[in-house]
Each structure stands twice: as structure tokens, then as C-alpha cells.
Amino acid sequence: MAILYICTIPPTVAHTHTVIFLHGRGDTAKNFMHSFQQWRDSESRSLVELFPSVRWVFPQSELRSPARFPGARMSQWFDTWDIANLQEKEELQIEGLKQSVASIRLLVDKEVASLSGQQEKVVLAGLSQGGATAVHTVLNLARGLGGLMVFSGRMPFPNRTLAETRSVLGLADVPEDDSAVRTSPVLVQHCADDPLSRIQNGREVRDSLSSFGAQVEWREYPTGGHWFHSPDGIQDAATWLRARVLQEN
């Protein structure tokens, strides 16, 4: 198991889309959901208010014992030895990431079923380590999603081909072609002053997904730290969701 429980914000009108949003390392679904509701665009509107037909789903990662700190327990989608250098002892990431991606795929299937099998109505998003997990989930899906949003993210196991990246986790029911990646539009946002996930990490996510055939929209902000840029980042996310995914006027 890689999901302990799920928090949701239900739609206030007829349900048309779902956004599954993965929290960062050390955070909780409940805390992340509350923070999410405070983000505002330039007109002080939240994403919940802007998209009333969306169900927002916030899964809680498993509590894991970091290899670097034996005996400790923390909320994380996968283990890392050094968050500043994911390639150091990168094999530590495999077990947790494999379990988390498998669990998120099941959650995606559940939300797709709630929308009459319309895979294009589900968007996967993540912040920081949640963004890294979301990336690998989309890479290991049999069918494309409505979209992928990555904020302050990282790219575990970079500098590989799509096939090589998939083979790291070795999940079952993974396609051999790139159609799912090519048909899932991507938004990547990163703040240049992020002290935890450096701006080059976001660029690496952008470049890796682009090399796999994804259509990536990149947004870089001068300030904002290891978080979302407000209001511009929220405004850009809303515009992307509306134009690329929800197709609202």
C-alpha cells in the first residue's frame, strides 16, 4: 500500500472532471488540501471557485522510514538519500516509487470509471516529490490523461529513454509505445529561487518529458520558493486547465 487515505473537495455542480493532486515529501493530504484552497489568482479566486465541476482528490502517501535516518518515519511517496542530488543512491527510490505509481494508477482508474470511462477528463498533478511521482505515473499509463501538472518537481532516473525509464520500475501493463505520453498535455511550473528543488530540476522535468514526445508548457517565475507562485502561477494554471483540458469559454 502507498496511499493511507484520501481527502476530497467535491464539485458544487455536476461532476465533469477530476484532478488528483499529490502532496510533497513530509506533508499530509489534509494539510496540503487546506493550503491548496488558499491559493488565489489575480482576482483573488481559488481554483476550486474557478472550476466548480471538478472533484479535487488528495491522496495521502505512506509513512516510510528513510534509509538515511533509521527509525524515523515520514510521509513520502518514495525514499531519497539526498534531496539535493536524487542520483546519489538513486536505487533507494525504486521500491517506494513503484508502489506509489501502482497505487496512483488504481486511483486514476477509479476516477476514470466515475466519469464513464473518459480518461481525458482526469488530470494528475503534484508538488515537489508528488510531482516526481505524478510524472512517473503518467509515463506508466496505458492511455493518456487529460493532463499532467508538475510544480517544483524533479525527475527521478533522468537521462534515459522512455523505455529505459519505464524499465526502472518494471510495472506490469505498461505500453511499449509513446501514445499515452504524447496525448497527455503537460504544464511544468518552477520558481527560480526554489531552495529545495533547484530550477534546473524543473528544467530537467521539462526536457525529459519533451524528449519522450510530450507537449510541455513551461512557466518559470523569479520568486516563490519551494511552492506555487501566487498570483501568476495560479493564474497560469487556471488558464492552462481551461484552455487545454476543461475547454471552457
UniProtKB/TrEMBL annotation:
Domain Phospholipase/carboxylesterase/thioesterase: 9-242
GO function terms (MF aspect): carboxylic ester hydrolase activity; palmitoyl-(protein) hydrolase activity
A cellular component annotation (GO) from this entry: cytoplasm
Top-level taxon of origin: Eukaryota
Family annotation (InterPro entries): AB_hydrolase_fold, LYPA1-2/EST-like, PLipase/COase/thioEstase
Signal sequence, renumbered to the chain: none
Family stated for the protein in its record: Belongs to the AB hydrolase superfamily. AB hydrolase 2 family.
PANTHER family: LYSOPHOSPHOLIPASE-RELATED (PTHR10655), PHOSPHOLIPASE_CARBOXYLESTERASE_THIOESTERASE DOMAIN-CONTAINING PROTEIN (PTHR10655:SF63)
The protein's name: Acyl-protein thioesterase
Lineage: Eukaryota, Fungi, Dikarya, Ascomycota, Pezizomycotina
